[in-house]
Design goal:
The chain is α+β, with helices and mostly antiparallel strands. 19% of the residues lie in helices and 30% in strands. The chain has one domain: Inorganic Pyrophosphatase (Alpha-Beta Complex), CATH 3.90.80. Strand 1 and strand 2 form a beta hairpin. The two termini are 31 Å apart.
Amino acid sequence: MANIDQKPSKYMLNLLHVLSPFADEEKKVLNAIVEINSGTINKYELITETGQLKLDRVGYSSLAYPFAYGAIPKTWDYDGDPLDIEIVNVMEPLVPGCLVEARIIGVMKFEDAGEIDDKIIAVLADDRRSDHIQSLEDLGGQFQKETTYYWEHIKHLKKPGTGIIKGFFDKEEAIKVVQECADRYTDIYLKKFE
């Protein structure tokens, strides 16, 4: 996993533009770059152009992220950012900025202030404690309740009613979302630089 098929460079590689979305497409395993750990209210974001991690904002409420959170390389969602990923069932904090391989479980369709901002839901691919988690149902009903509550209320003190959950869907729909965002990366994001 640590080897990247890229010739050495005197410049730091931006993994958002070097890695493919899938680490192993057959096994439904994605590459993901961690931005945020669970338990924090700080919103960190990768700068798309450089790959540096930046404090985007301090949360406007006391709600902390209930999962690790990050970005999928070479994808572009409708909100003008790489596709988001929630990494659930993480036992130890992940280092922000690190690359992980995450196995797809499903997708949460989400609208943020009128923009589509879907969230892929995954578990760490090499964590044996998550082997039994193969679908959203395996996470239990409480997971969907907590996740829904979080996204519907995270901006409530600043912009009430702007987070709207459109539903939770299976891994086949999640793969479709990843592929659409990978196509959008090529067709829209990269074309800005031609």
